[in-house]
Amino acid sequence: MAIAIAIIACQSLQLPSKPLTSTAVTIKLSGWGGSPVEQKLLRQVLQDFEAQYPTIKVKYEVISDQYMDVIKTRLVGEAAPDVFYLDALEAPFLMSQNVLEPLDSYITTKFDLVDFEDTLLNSFKYQNQIYGLPKDYSTLALFYNKKAFAFAGLSNPPATWDELRNYSKQLTGKLNKYGFGEIPELARQAYKIKAFGGQLVDQNGSATFASEAGLQGLELVVNQYQKDRSSAQKSDVGTNSGSEMFGQSKVAMVIEGNWAIPYLTETFPQVEFGTAPVPTINDKKGTMVFTVAYVMNKQAQHKAEAWELISYLTGKEGMQKWTGTGFALPTRKSVAKNLGYDQDPLRSPLVAGVNYATPWQVGKYPSAIVNNFDNQFVSALLGQQPLKQAMLKAQNEANQQIKAMD
């Protein structure tokens, strides 16, 4: 599929952008499915766009399954949408294949590019060109059960990982079965690898997470799970997510994203919770940041209109409408300030974290790295093999797969 995309990209012509037409033009927008509330909100924002641009109609399509496989297949078959969602994790590959339209020539001073958070915008830059504009994001923060903390005589959330482990022991077996809910996937562990100077990938895109420095951060997780017995995975307590095990009071603390706030508020209204920055590790602040951009298909027939759609959705007015309900955080600093999220008791730790977060991005071939890490780390966590052996096995297998794909 990668080879086919490359061939199609070489064949595509760099057509000059045409001015907006006076006749109606339809722009196709594709994204993955979200919650019904999210879908309804996006459709409303798109209606507002069409009201302002009466000659542009938006055909919005939800791809509910195997999203990236569908997009890649359609890019090869020249049937891809004009504008579509692109996760930061998947961006490096598509940006390198010459199938996305660079947006630099469309961006004007009025668009106010400097208003975007640098960390988020940089995830969609390749060879000094911008290929996507981030529509929203989330970092991770510590969620803690206030009632459980009061019961255990704990007044403040932990500030360091040592404190978290200590608190976790005190909270285990009281109002909650376990003190802490652990999510072992690389998407939640990367900042721990970096806390001691480790890296996920090197400059060539090869996996390097099994370095001695990287293992130090992961050892914290294994020791808490195996020795302290104060943390649990979602499968240990019969739940499907970190948010659910926290909401069901199976754990007193969990590290989750902004998406957990509306979920917990609606699904578990009886749980009184607070949020705090992710505890420091090795005296370093750390968290993850996940973001998604709108990108333009290089073969789009109506690029000027496609840009108007992207510009509206990621502009100040469109973004304020999109993120105003709080289920997503705005990527523009001015919008976050207008909405007061930097002062919001629950969201302010998430907003502050963007300045020091590790972007969720691991080179051009993320599946090789993510799948091998996740499989082997869970094995180490369960005590089926030593951590170092598991991580070296994952790293070697990932690099063999990358070599075969490159």
- Under CATH, the homologous superfamily of the largest domain reads Periplasmic binding protein-like II
Classify the helix fraction into a percent range: 40-55%
- Cα-based radius of gyration, to the nearest Å: 22 Å
Coarse morphology: globular
Summarize the helix and strand pattern as letters.
Answer: HEHEHEHHEEEHHEHHEHEHEEHHHHEHH
CATH class of the largest domain: Alpha Beta
Q: Could you name the CATH topology of the largest domain?
A: D-Maltodextrin-Binding Protein, domain 2
Give the count of helical stretches.
17
Q: How many domains?
A: 2
Q: How much strand? A: 15-25%
Please give the number of β-strands.
Answer: 12
The stretches of 5 or more residues where confidence is low (pLDDT under 50) are 7-19
* Main sheet record: 10 strands, mixed
CATH architecture of the largest domain: 3-Layer(aba) Sandwich
Mean pLDDT: 93
Distance between the termini: 12 Å
- Structural class, please? alpha/beta
Protein name: ABC transporter substrate-binding protein
GO cellular component, one term: ATP-binding cassette (ABC) transporter complex, substrate-binding subunit-containing
Organism: Nostoc edaphicum CCNP1411
InterPro entries: SBP
Q: How would you portray this structure in words?
A:
- With 406 residues, the protein is an alpha/beta fold.
- It has helices at residues 2-11, 36-52, 67-76, 91-96, 118-122, 146-151, 161-171, 186-195, 212-228, 242-247, 260-267, 303-313, 316-323, 333-339, 348-353, 366-381, 387-405; strands at 25-32, 56-63, 83-87, 125-126, 129-130, 133-145, 178-181, 231-232, 251-257, 273-276, 288-296, 358-359.
- It folds into two domains: 10-138 and 290-359, Periplasmic binding protein-like II (D-Maltodextrin-Binding Protein, domain 2), CATH 3.40.190.10; 139-288 and 363-405, D-Maltodextrin-Binding Protein, domain 2 (3-Layer(aba) Sandwich).
- Strand 4 and strand 5 (129-130) form a beta hairpin.
